[in-house]
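Deliverable D4.2, example record:
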Amino acid sequence: MRILCFFLFSLFFTQISAQSLDLTYDGDGWAEAGLSKSTSHFVWDCGVQSDDKVISYTQRSGIETEVIRLDQNGNPDGLFTTINTTGVDQARAIAISSTDKVYTASRTSIPGSTIRRYNADGTVDASYSAVTTSFTIYRLALDGAGNLMAVGAEGTQAVIARFLSTGAIDASFGTGGSVKLNNGWGRDVLISGTEYYFLYNDNSGTIAKLTKHDNNGNFVTSFGSGGLAQFTAASGVSCLDIHEVSSGIILVGNANTGSFFTPVSIKLDASTGAVDPAYGASGYAITGINAFTPVNTQMSVLVGGDNIAFIFRGGSLSSTEVGLGLFQPDGNLNPAFGSFSGYEKFSYTEALNTQSLNIDNAGRLLINSSYINSSTSMSDIVVTRIDVPSIFFAPLSSVSVYGSMHIQSLFQLTPMTTAPTCTTQVEQGKIYFDKTLQKLRVCTSGGWESLH
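Output generated by the structure prediction step:
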């Protein structure tokens, strides 16, 4: 199998030729885990260890979970552990500690989950007692004190809970270790110092909700209305991820336009929860990418310079394609990214189900997918590594451009001795020729930067 894709990026009238697939990764940019194709495999989440080894958390045959590792070059690095059960054991979420220990959460009953911990080499951590919860966990995260945050749902309630490093529930958080909110489904948690932002959707899937909590789980009442901010647009919004950026918080998910679902991002003030009217269209950046199912936007990650990459499926994409888009700091899709004015699509030779996106320590994007064989069961796990030129993620003075750069005289510039204004996000991207410096300069988030 081969992934067929070549990016030609353009920035203003600068062209950057770049092979976006990282060809050092298993020789062609994608790596299979080498699992048995006679057994169904479904990847749910992935993480990255400090040495850039990729951990995929996978469900096998619906009743077992696998923790799989690929090395830095994309080679299978041994099957960590297979947990065999006599009942349901369905993979859901993963988190990796600063010491490379691996936490996993699987659904072992309805709606309960089990949290397990593995050492950096994949062996079971005997010092950690497996935790059983009464709610289904969909996302895990570790705070600065080494506590494990888990979010999910129990019945019609959204749940956020905190566990100590020993596995014990932290009774000092919320009520008996958790906070439960009516009419919701927990999706993500953002840890900001000693405060927590809890993202969940209402059970109708039309309103995204965000609460802010202090270190004890109490509502921060100055945020939103009594600690709760709610977001909706068009015919409804559901969000999957939350990111902290330099000037606020961004939520990413899907918007229902009334005709179809499409990727959306929302920016808000981290202190008040108010939507930032300068972002997108009055705070909501609705892309218009036509994807027809409610779960088209699978996951997003924060990359450098407040840019957010996201993966999506459905709509105009076939069952063998995955889309990768890039939100700029102002909420617009980066028109120079990919072949479709803000996104690129990757074509595979087999149908697949793509579930997660991550970023490694070198800033390379990692797409985790499951191949689907002709009998409609999952046949293997594939990780795609993408080396996106960092010119998209940072001020020009601090980046290295991959590939060659060619200046083309597509239009004539009048030399100037005084720089134009460069103070707002709207002005970013303006370009002029500095007569004194004899250089082309572009307006970035860090001010004027020379192009050569």
